[in-house]
Design brief:
single chain, alpha/beta, TIM Barrel, ten-stranded mixed beta sheet, binds iron/sulfur cluster, Aldolase_TIM, metal-binding, Pyrv-formate_lyase-activ_prd, pyruvate, Putative pyruvate formate lyase activating enzyme
């Protein structure tokens, strides 16, 4: 069994950045130290239908991120950390229980990778107090395989991005040159441990949804992402997202400086239909 605390220790290697920061005294490339930082929590109704359901997904937004996407739509939280609160594992457990009491269908951990060792402790504490709704791990997929294996006892549903199938793009836009290799290994492990998406009464209870945000003027990348999914994942559920808008540093990249147009979206939709893809296609 992985000793996840040891992976953080005084030389953090919790995520694939392996930046070896002593998080007891400084912040790593994820911009966080060894204390949980949350920006907000609430019921969220904008996720895929089996995640949001009628009563909402109990979403917790963590501050910081182990990637640095130039177009990040959550950049005030993930990159600038303009407003956040530091809490301990017990307080996070209480948040899980509060959201459960408010009838959340699940707990939705948004950008959890750099806090995963602490989040698991909170899940354990909350379970001792009656926490029993599914846990969603909402990730860029820039996660280590051994961490995904460790999460098997804690996570029920993966909401896993597959952003790029091209290392040049991942380096240019997100500052990591090994994204495709790392993310695809992580997604394969997610599939191996949780299997395809399972619904009960139209709500997700277990499994994997792979999300892909279609970037303007990068349609070939999106097609390669879809190709990889259909070639490698059994019965995939894909969520194709067209919600891109130029945020954060996107205006510095001319190709990213506008929203996705209809013709590019239709192009990728046609491609998805041709591949026989099943899933969720975001309405503009
Ligand atoms: S979790 Fe943060 S500190 Fe740890 S390796 Fe990743 S980026 Fe570095």
């Amino acid at each position: 069994m992985l000793d996840i605390e040891k992976l953080v220790g005084t030389s953090c290697r919790l995520c694939p950045r392996n930046c070896k920061t002593n998080r007891n005294i400084e912040t790593g490339l994820c911009k966080t130290n060894n204390k949980i930082e949350i920006a907000s929590f609430n019921l969220h109704f904008g996720e895929e239908p089996p995640i949001s359901g009628n009563y909402g997904s109990g979403t917790v937004f963590f501050a910081g991120c182990n990637m640095a996407c130039v177009f990040c739509q959550n950049y005030p939280i993930s990159q600038l950390k303009s407003a956040y609160k530091t809490i301990d594992e017990y307080a996070l457990a209480d948040i899980f229980l509060e959201l459960q009491n408010r009838k959340a269908h699940n707990i939705n951990l948004v950008t959890p990778s750099h806090f995963v060792h602490l989040i698991c402790k909170s899940i354990e504490i909350a379970r001792q107090k009656g926490f029993n709704i599914p846990v969603c791990y909402n990730t860029s997929s820039y996660d280590k395989v051994e961490v995904i294996e460790y999460l098997n006892d804690y996570v029920d549903i993966y909401l896993a991005d597959l952003k790029y199938a091209d290392d040049e793009l991942s380096y240019k836009y997100s500052g990591v040159s090994d994204y495709f290799k790392v993310a695809t290994r992580a997604i394969i492990k997610m599939q191996e441990t949780k299997g395809p998406l399972i619904l009960k009464n139209n709500l997700a209870i277990k499994g994997l949804i792979i999300r892909h945000l279609v970037l303007p003027n990068n349609i070939e990348n999106s097609k390669k992402v879809l190709d990889w999914i259909v070639d490698n994942i059994d019965k995939p559920t894909i969520s194709l997202m067209r919600q891109y808008f130029p945020a954060y540093k996107a205006s510095l990249y001319p190709e990213l400086s506008k929203k996705l147009n209809n013709s590019q979206w239709n192009n990728i939709l046609d491609y998805a239909y041709k591949l026989g893809i099943d899933g969720y296609f975001q309405v503009a």
